[in-house]
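Worked problem 6 (solution included).
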Amino acid sequence: MNHLSKSNSTYLRSHANNPVHWHSWGDEVLEKAKRENKIIIISIGYATCHWCHVMNRESFSDKNVAEIMNQYFINIKVDREERPDIDQVYMQAVHLINKRGGWPLNCFATPDGKPFYGGSYFPKENWAELLNNIQDLWQNEPHKIIAQANQITDYVNEMPSQFMQQNTFADFTDAYNTIKEHFLANSDMKYGGPKGAPKFLMPGHLQFLMDSHFFDKDPQSAEYVSLSLLKFAQGGIHDHLAGGFSRYSVDALWKVPHFEKTLYDNAQLISLYTNAYKSFKNLDYKSIAEKTADFALQYLQSQNHLFYSGIDADSEGVEGKFYVWTKKEFTEVLGEKADLFTDWFGIDAESLWEEGLNVLTQWQDKKDFLQRHQLSEKEFDILLEKAKIKLLNYREKRIHPVVDSNIIVSWNAIMLNALLELSEISDNSKYKEVAISGLEVLINTMWLPNKKVFRTLRTNETDAVEGFLEDYVCFAELLVTAYLINQENEYLDIAQEIVEVIMEQFSNSSEPLLNFSSKNESALFAQSVELFDNVIPSSNSMAAILFLKLGVIISLPELTNRALRMANAGMYLSCSSPMSSYHWALLFLMIQKEPLSIKLLNIDSDNLPYHPFVYYSIPQKDSSPKKIEICGINRCLEPFSNLKELISYLNEK
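Solution. The predicted structure is:
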């Protein structure tokens, strides 16, 4: 029978009516596989995954396919959002097998959980044939499967040490410069983002280059970052009606997105556009950050001030149906102003996708457009806003894509952190209010009662999975940001408590890097050590930056020294994969430039200069002398007596 109907996961419940006898991951089903000596199918996906839906419809809903799976296999469904640890190790195995990965991830494993074959999406006929072939091999030549599984298991377990074999960098500066050169060499200077297609947004790439530009004033970095931010905002990957961004573009122009929207992408883009405004003072960046935040508040916020994981690409079984427009539909909605906005949005021209459908883009040069239509900017902006409201109101009546109701702690921490950063430049107080309210929910429902961080947050959850390194680190990072903005010591104290748990529960024998899973979790066939940066930075590079930042703020050498040791390990990793080491490179830059904790004692704190690696503390004023205390990595400087001296010092850095 199918065991998924009572699952807390939106994704698992979407498979509850399959004729396949699905189980969720757990000790009981793994013991069943051993007892019955059956091959395990570990099928991993997530609720907003388009190709997961396709394979569900084609194969997992088919009675004939299900009959084969039920008779010969133990079938386990895994939500990668809830169990990234399982996803990581089996994804590594599949990459080794066929050099490709992605979701749905379908991995075959021996009864003791060791992987021996796998892939992503399989058409129904291929899937059925594969099932029969594997069963035949297991029945007649099991030794071949066991040998393959043992070989892959050994290799996955050895992977972290294999990436630590060689370091060709002379020092952190050399490592940072080399990684930056790789990024710029791979940059698309016509359309922004990386070269080629499909194109992922990868906000961390641009954040790294923007921070490096703060120091070296490299014009190529500034041009590339500015171009990318502009092209993201103009393309169809950006929702021009409701705000927010899709996960990636299928083309090089950012025109046609894969319409899925994720919390972690949009959260990081809020931070990116916020920091771009701080760096370049372009008001468009501030506006985009606010509109992206408004999208998240409107469409992803839960009732408890936290956020759901994402929005599906599909509605009514069709990818993008909710978002696209025919020219006829578009003109009927806008009436007499349709011609103006058909031109502005490029309907049946730049925005045309396929089969008469348009993905809204805004590639027009505004100045030329206004001259052509003899409109003032103020006039046009009013008309545009009215047109967008009409289009959005019409679109809202369509059948909406499904929202993935998982509340992932790390992704929420990234979003709340982004809202706090945005609150520093926005006049709208709601961003800070939502962020602090969400933070308090996390503190009061997780940390204070349990002294634990969980992966997901739900009411009355009985089978909660303890958080992974990513969850602990992102939560602690959020607390540090909340302290810096609100100047409440409680947040800093909890962050320090969380870091102590990280040190105790996630350290491993190959210190200084940290395990992805805590010591409390049941062991998988391999222990995952997350090394490389993806769209979300690796948990180890994030942990190293957290340790460095917090160590400087509270003057704790144990943390700063651990960060330096992790950075040394990161140099080895960066040699093997520079393009997957952007957050490690940011750490190298931080060490090179030295982060500073600056405490202003009885000094007015208005108009403090922005600096990416400076952290201000502003205690309550008292009768003690005015001074500015400055501490860096395992050292403190002579105090300054006024802001002028501080600004002069920072300008020299």
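Discussion: The CA atoms of residues 80 and 86 lie 7 Å apart.
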